[in-house]
Amino acid sequence: MFKKLNDVLGKTAVIIKRYPMVLVMAFISAISMICYIETDFPKTEAAFEYVKLTLISALGISLFFGLKMLSQRIGRELILQLCGLIILAVIYFVLPTLEKDFTEVYAFVLIPILILSHLLVSFVAFIGHNKELNFWQYNKNLFINTFLTGIFTGVLTGGVLLAILAIDKLFDFNFNSTYYSYTFAFFSIFGSCCIFLLFNEKGLNYLERNGDYPVVLKFFTQYILIPLLLIYAVILYFYSAKILMNWELPRGWVSYLILAYSVVGILALLLVHPLKESATRSWVKIFSTIFYYTLLPLIILLFVAIFTRILEYGFTEPRYFVLIIALWLTSVVLYFIFIPRSTIKFVPMSLFTFGLLSLIFPYINAFSTAKRSQKNELMKTLTENNLLQNGTINFNTKVDNKVVIDVSDKFEFLAKRHEEQFLQSLVKSPLQKRLATHIEKGAFYNISGSLRDEFKNITYDNSSINPESTPQNRTLTVRNSNINITGYQYLFKAYNYRQNSFNLEGKTLEFDLDGNHSQSKFTLVYEGQKFDLLPEITEIFKRYPGVGETNVSSLDITRKIGDYEIKVIFDNLVRIDSKEKKNEFSTNSESVLILVKKN
Asked: Model's pTM, two decimal places?
């Protein structure tokens, strides 16, 4: 028992000494996540700093592990660690200071960087090192250790959580529910990092050692992965034949199926790489030979599908990255077909290169390309529909509803990408001021609505609409944010998707907004007595028939309950009416105000 404990402590001391920066990053990430959980709802800007620290330090885990592997090959550990800190600092300052500016654009920054950091781990220690079998053994061991880390972390975290639950229930400690979140965050981040490092404690020399081919990996590849690939290939080739016979453009989602087939196939080839020269494994050699040739017609189909969407709708970041992956896939196929002495190191190194250039290459990176493309698409739409008059949009021009939606969506897209000056040049005051206000507050979802409301002569083409299945949404939004609280003694703030409880002069007032996005549930509860607000909400929508979005002067409901007059004030209300959902209501507001005064 003590010997095992000493072994564990000894190994722990080794990983602390060998991987200090990796552990520091994991610890900062775990503690930052705990601090974020600790902050009460609604989250403040300080809480957003915890999110940034969590994300950046999580990136640092893989980055510093990769740099450690490189330092074990070439030395210069301190210089490499300094470079790692500089990279993380640059990424930190690229992220916005305020949460309201943290749009989905930054997901297209962080996700590729996370992928790149893991790709770096796979090859950085083998740049200029030509022992291919060592490269394969290294990545195979990392793959297995990562899989084992996931199992061990799941068991450890689940076991600790169950232990806390048992103590709580058996001894009546009544632990705060956040303790479970703290435990999960700490063990899933810092705990998993420690377990992974324990598997890799001996470092690069241990990971790249020669070893027997794992039987489980051979079975998985031969009887699961390759048969699945054959099924994918049959489906894709039949679909290609259907396209040729019907002479139709491919559907957009076929791109993802082709990419999945290609990536999984390349992974399968990497997993069986040591077996392809074995005479007893001829099936591996056959598969390795024919796979890249099977991709050639599918790559043509892939580019047709991609450019069909790009030429029709322009570039966005997701379409750009799909195109980049298609170009990378083409380079991999051509490389392995035409280069006799090919190396599997080309796969991660080329993907890393394409990914890095897509983020940082001037003018043609993902973000510059998407903004430039959508600006051109917007101007093209405005010009083709005669909406421009003296350089600004004429909102009195007769225009189809689909064009209105397209223009307003592009305004929102570009606003999220800091193109305020360009958008302001296309409209006149007071819309300029409203757009500036929405952008300043980070209320980008209001931009498209504000723009749609400006169009005065909209036509609707209902020929292709199936009223039985198409949701007929109706959104009411308050145009004036000023609230008159004269005469009211109490003001409460109720948060959406929650059961809110307030102390009203020693008695309990509740407002139930708990439910899914389309809840038909707006209930005031006073001293156990329920008051349903749905009749009043239904009457409000009767005053504003139709579909789409409308700005209104106010959205409030007044109820007399006991000795009090209670006014519930909404920012917006949404009605959904379709075959599946009949007159369901929700609010997109983060919070709802409740004013109370005595009668």
From this structure: 0.77
